[in-house]
């Protein structure tokens, strides 16, 4: 039967990275890829138990939960989740043993109760994850669960840390016992999160209903963020109407009224909450009239979908004074705490009056997933707003404090808010944020957007509470008291290489980035597409995360059965100056040899070209310097438009070695990615000319300088094949062209294979092959965690011309393997380095090309850091 346009897209699925949500996906009425190879499954099972103390028991536990029949990625993930859930439940029983110990101090007893509650949070979050996976498997829902699952698993990883932090100020005996019970829990959940994030980065995803657009998710599922439409997508239209409507005193429907003067049904907020329905699926509105309510409120997780509305900031005030110095844990010191899902607050002040001398004293603690605070004020000193976990949204709020006064490990967007620093104790430093992301796989962080930072004395934007702390300030006013360095260390070098701090188009006297910290983890965001990751739609709604959104798809087929017969015609028809939030323009190029020269101009942005595989869809040309072309113009395929993505295509220049420079691909497209492509030529095969580029699982063939240019490019899991050159030539894999030490450019070749092509291998290696040479003065190239076969010469690298650039280049090798990886006899140039792990981390996807904030929207899988 002839393949339809939809069914032709089946080859684009990645068998080894099959998504949990795809294991039973319906694709044109047929189940696709519900099994993966046993070896891969066994690796997944092993990873689920990695670094667990009792690995044998863990493996047995996971195996026992797998089905007897066919197994797939989803069943392994479910089994690992079930094993983690069982472990948490056992930990709760162990922790409960301490509840009745009379020898415990008051603080220890509070900390134990915290632990029980926090572990119960983990039970709930793991149960949600299991339920979501079962629902997807049974119903084939079009709902994309990945934002949910990653949020829930991220929270479940961190709860155990908060439990142990509660024992600060005790003799640590109880803490150490409980820590022993929690270590395996934390590791198991962390393994599940890691497994999940690695499994769900597919470049393409088949539709669950035929109404979707040619096999891609339609961009109707996305939301344009603008002044009128910037609430989270999980807020209903009814929620938004309640948020922006007039006060309850002017006719709004409410379910309960609280008033200190007796004019409502309740005199205390706690009474109203107690009477609210449990596990409600509808919005339950509590109106709290003007007054000061001196009560501590802990709204438990069974109280869902509650909305609390006051009479305005400074009018409806909830006040308390619990603090660390009184013996409370930070977690339990909150004046107002909420863990019930879907909570919304409007026009309320949350206040902790303990003052600066009493250390940690929380005004508001939030563990409510998909919660929102509108026109509220959070007032305290140290640790005012504890955005502890899950997804949170703050709009038009005021936040006051001194030290770490916005902290926690939620995924929080703080939008159009006023953030005020207060006067701390003598010798204390004002730090606005202390974000607590502990794993690179957690979807957490703080995004402070279009807000105003008013500091009354020297202040810092944040410091890293945990190693992967993540905070960005976007389009925000920074007052003069923000210190020039911007950010503060926690202690020493802790977290400086692994954190992610960013600033984008801020303004005001404190916004200059000229004197900012030089940490590897600090980034000046210069592109809107990078900043977009931290907006409401992507950061807490989960849209466009690790999935490619395609607005339109056209088909190129030389037999006339598609929309076009040439690739150039399809590109000409593409719209100009597309914005990233409108989705990609997809061009499917069917099997065939396309003898045409492609030059995608800069105004053709966010194009996606998909072929039928290497050596199936082939684009070929033969321009060369030997035939009077320039190197620049010799390219068979050239691309300049930002956001370009290509997969499953071969790009060739068949001019041959005798014609000298002859480019197959020239790439100057920022935020571009190539996945499972092949670039075939001889001299100057791949011209990575400029901007940020990523290559995954690609093959690159050539002889002299066959990867060259001045881009910032990462090559991950690629095969680099040296070919037989002309007589008296030697092979040079790279010729990187960095011209200034301040340029952020260079080539990072990671977890790749450097081998001889068949023609060179058959010559018994009479031709010398080197890793690279310095085309320009500050040439920078790193080979790390790669296999270097015996074709690589012991010297490793070659001069360009005498001593040119040998003192100014930067060439590095880290943890490579293979017969060509021995560095004992490498060049002794000043610019050559055998680097250590911390330095190698700088050249990973996360840091070198800031890939974790633009690669997810390309759909191309990637590894964030070192392998």
From TrEMBL:
Annotated source species: Chenopodium quinoa
UniProt similarity note: In the C-terminal section; belongs to the pectinesterase family.
Keywords, comma-separated and alphabetical: Aspartyl esterase, Hydrolase, Signal
PANTHER family to which the protein is assigned, alphabetical: PECTINESTERASE
Protein name per the record: Pectinesterase inhibitor domain-containing protein
Entry annotation: catalytic residues: 404, 705
Region feature (Disordered): 206-232
GO molecular function, one term: pectinesterase activity
InterPro entries: Invertase/methylesterase_inhib, Pectin_lyas_fold, Pectin_lyase_fold/virulence, Pectinesterase_Asp_AS, Pectinesterase_cat, Pectinesterase_inhib_dom, Pectinesterase_Tyr_AS
Signal peptide: 1-25
Source organism, top-level taxon: Eukaryota
SUPFAM superfamilies associated with the record: Pectin lyase-like (SSF51126), Plant invertase/pectin methylesterase inhibitor (SSF101148)
Pathway assigned in UniProt: Glycan metabolism; pectin degradation; 2-dehydro-3-deoxy-D-gluconate from pectin: step 1/5
CDD domains the UniProt entry points to: PMEI-like_3 (cd15798)
One Gene Ontology term from the biological process aspect of the record: cell wall modification
């Amino acid at each position: 039967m002839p393949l339809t346009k939809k069914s032709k897209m089946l080859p684009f699925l990645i068998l080894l990275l099959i998504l949990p949500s795809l294991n039973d996906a319906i694709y044109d009425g047929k189940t696709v890829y519900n099994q993966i190879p046993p070896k891969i499954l066994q690796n997944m099972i092993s990873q689920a138990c990695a670094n667990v103390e009792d690995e044998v028991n863990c493996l047995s536990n996971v195996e026992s939960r797998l089905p007897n029949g066919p197994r797939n990625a989803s069943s392994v993930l479910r089994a690992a989740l079930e094993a983690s859930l069982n472990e948490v439940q056992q930990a709760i029983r162990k922790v409960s043993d301490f509840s009745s110990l009379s020898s415990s101090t008051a603080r220890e007893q509070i900390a134990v109760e915290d632990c029980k509650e926090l572990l119960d949070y983990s039970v709930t979050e793991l149960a949600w994850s299991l339920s979501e996976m079962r629902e997807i498997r049974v119903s084939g829902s079009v709902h994309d669960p990945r934002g949910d699952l990653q949020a829930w698993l991220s929270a479940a990883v961190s709860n155990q840390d908060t439990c142990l932090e509660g024992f600060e100020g005790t003799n640590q005996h109880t803490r150490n016992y409980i820590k022993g019970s929690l270590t395996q829990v934390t590791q198991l959940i962390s393994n599940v999160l890691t497994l999940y994030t690695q499994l769900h980065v597919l470049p393409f995803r088949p539709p669950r209903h035929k109404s979707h657009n040619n096999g891609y998710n339609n961009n109707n599922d996305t939301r344009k963020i603008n002044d009128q439409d910037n609430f989270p997508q999980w807020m209903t239209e009814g929620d938004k109407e309640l948020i922006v409507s007039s006060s309850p005193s002017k006719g709004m429907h409410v379910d309960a009224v609280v008033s200190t003067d007796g004019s409502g049904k309740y005199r205390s907020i706690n009474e109203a909450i107690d009477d609210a329905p449990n596990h409600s699926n509808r919005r339950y509105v509590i109106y709290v009239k003007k007054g000061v309510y001196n009560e501590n409120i802990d709204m438990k997780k069974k109280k869902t979908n509650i909305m609390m509305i006051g009479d305005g900031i400074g009018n409806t005030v909830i006040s308390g004074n619990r603090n660390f110095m009184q013996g409370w844990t930070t977690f339990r010191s909150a004046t107002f705490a909420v863990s019930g899902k879907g909570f919304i607050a409007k026009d309320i002040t949350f206040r902790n009056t303990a003052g600066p001398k009493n250390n940690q004293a929380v005004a508001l603690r939030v563990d409510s997933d998909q919660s929102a605070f509108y026109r509220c004020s959070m007032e305290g000193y140290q640790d005012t707003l504890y955005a502890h976990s899950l997804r949170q949204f703050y709009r038009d709020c005021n936040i006051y404090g001194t030290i770490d006064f916005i902290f926690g490990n939620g995924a929080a967007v703080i939008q159009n808010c006023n953030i005020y620093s207060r006067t701390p104790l003598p010798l204390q430093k004002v730090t606005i944020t202390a974000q607590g992301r502990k794993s690179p796989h957690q979807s957490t962080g703080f995004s402070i957007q279009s807000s105003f930072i008013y500091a009354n004395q020297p202040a810092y934007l944040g410091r890293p509470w945990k190693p992967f702390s993540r905070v960005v300030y976007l389009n925000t006013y920074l007052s003069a008291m923000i210190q020039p360095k911007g950010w503060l260390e926690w202690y020493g070098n802790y977290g400086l290489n692994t954190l992610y701090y960013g600033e984008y188009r801020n303004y005001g006297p404190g916004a200059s980035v000229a004197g900012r910290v030089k940490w590897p983890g600090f980034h000046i965001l210069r592109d809107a597409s990078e900043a977009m990751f931290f907006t409401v739609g992507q950061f807490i709604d989960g849209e466009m995360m690790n999935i490619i959104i395609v607005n339109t798809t056209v088909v190129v087929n030389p037999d006339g059965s598609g929309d076009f017969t040439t690739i150039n015609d399809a590109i000409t028809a593409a719209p100009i100056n597309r914005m990233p939030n409108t989705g990609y323009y997809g061009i499917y190029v069917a099997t065939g040899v396309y003898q045409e020269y492609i030059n995608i101009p800069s105004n053709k942005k966010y194009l996606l070209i998909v072929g039928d595989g290497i050596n199936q869809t082939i684009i070929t040309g033969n321009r060369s310097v030997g035939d009077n072309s320039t190197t620049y113009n010799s390219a068979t395929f050239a691309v300049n438009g930002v956001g370009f993505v290509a997969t499953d295509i071969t790009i060739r220049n068949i001019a041959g070695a005798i014609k000298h420079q002859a480019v197959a691909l020239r790439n100057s497209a920022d935020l571009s990615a190539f996945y499972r492509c092949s670039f075939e030529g001889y001299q100057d095969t791949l011209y990575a000319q400029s901007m940020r580029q990523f290559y995954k699982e690609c093959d690159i063939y050539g002889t002299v300088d066959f990867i060259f240019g001045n881009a910032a490019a990462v090559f991950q899991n690629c095969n680099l094949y040296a070919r037989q050159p002309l007589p008296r030539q030697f092979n040079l894999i790279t010729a990187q062209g960095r011209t200034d030490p301040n340029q952020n450019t260079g080539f990072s070749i990671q977890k790749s294979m450097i081998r001889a092509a068949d023609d060179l291998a058959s010559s018994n290696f009479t031709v010398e092959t080197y890793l690279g040479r310095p085309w320009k003065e500050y040439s920078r190239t790193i080979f790390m965690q790669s296999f270097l076969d015996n074709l690589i010469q012991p010297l490793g690298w070659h001069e360009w011309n005498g001593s040119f650039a040998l003192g100014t280049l930067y060439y590095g090798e880290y943890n490579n393997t293979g017969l060509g990886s021995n560095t004992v006899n490498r060049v002794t140039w000043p610019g050559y380095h055998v680097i250590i792990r911390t330095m190698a981390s700088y050249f990973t996807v996360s840091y070198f090309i800031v890939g974790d904030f633009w690669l997810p929207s390309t759909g191309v899988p990637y590894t964030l850091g070192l392998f």
